[in-house]
Automatic annotation (TrEMBL):
Residues 72-223 form the N-acetyltransferase domain. It comes from Nocardiopsis changdeensis. Pfam families: Rv0428c_C. This is GNAT family N-acetyltransferase. InterPro entries: Acyl_CoA_acyltransferase, GNAT_dom, Rv0428c-like_C, YpeA/RimI_acetyltransf. Signal peptide: none annotated. Keywords: Acyltransferase, Transferase. The keyword rRNA-binding does not apply.
Amino acid sequence: MHEWAARVARDWPAFEVVERGGWRFGTAEGVTKRANSAVLLAPGADPAEVTAFYRERGLTPCAQVWPGQEEADARLERHGYAVVEPTLVLAREPLGRPRAPGTTAVAAAPGADWLAHGPARVDVVARILGGTTALYGTAPGGAGRGCAVLSGRSAAVCAMVTAPGARRRGVASGILADLLAAAHDKGATDAYLCVVTENTAARRLYEGFGFTEVSAYHNRVLA
């Protein structure tokens, strides 16, 4: 299993994990590809196993493809799997303690304002994060939220959302700075996150905080 795939799976855990046929399968009621996809364990694994596993559960078959898995990528393509959402892994190493405004309410559990943002299945997102040790940050007035999952000396930034009416006002940068500072104070020495390659606005934000590319992957999804 690719090193970064293992870290991402650890910090965004699926509800169900099954290893068979050279794959590690995860499911979380279909919420996010990251928690509902197959990760390669054996180089010669058959994509038909991916199709069968997710079809059995009424979910869209999806597999992550990481660097060094080009042969598996070609097999998935031959089985009709299309590339979806190429994603970058960005890291800030060492983390340091950023200058933070201190305006974000940071807690060990998601509050009502935190749960008010995001996708329709934000309850499932909260359950996914409930399988981790995390810091939940909410901007004043519920203008946005984010999360930092703590694992050992690492912090994984995720679930960043800004309310539509509060965009381009520095809300996301304030949340990010406060979460990174809180993670640093909890003992984190590095931080990372995943961002869709085409999300240029988010990439500018993260790169402005010193995050640089350390890996990348894409999803292969069966139509």
